[in-house]
Model the fold of this input.
Amino acid sequence: MAKLSLEELRKLRDEKRYELDKRETENKDTEIIVGMGTCGIAAGAKEAMQAFIEELNDQGLSNVAVKQTGCMGLCYSEPTVEVHLPGMPDIIYGDVDPETAKKIVRKHIMGKTLVNDHIYDRPAADIVKKD
Done:
């Protein structure tokens, strides 16, 4: 690998700092939580997460935190993403590829409209057997 100049190192630092800022929750009212369990990663969750970060940057949205979690238990619909947005129901989206991630940012977060063809959810509490 070639040596980087001081200016190149500063630029790289600033880019990474900006990306890490997307993961901070302080002063942000919206969350995108990407399932990054083994099944999610194998299905493309890393690419989806990167697409969320890039689209949020492209749209200039600084009020949205992008976080990761382990398996959400919806392995059949990986990659899965949970969205928390004030004034909207909490939604779990499945089969989220990079293009769908961009659509979620534009339609759900910016347009306050659900992306119906990718909505999944956890089983209702009343049908889950408790031991």
User: Anything to note?
Assistant: The beta strands are 30-35, 64-69, 81-84, 91-93, 119-120. DSSP finds four helices and five strands in the chain.
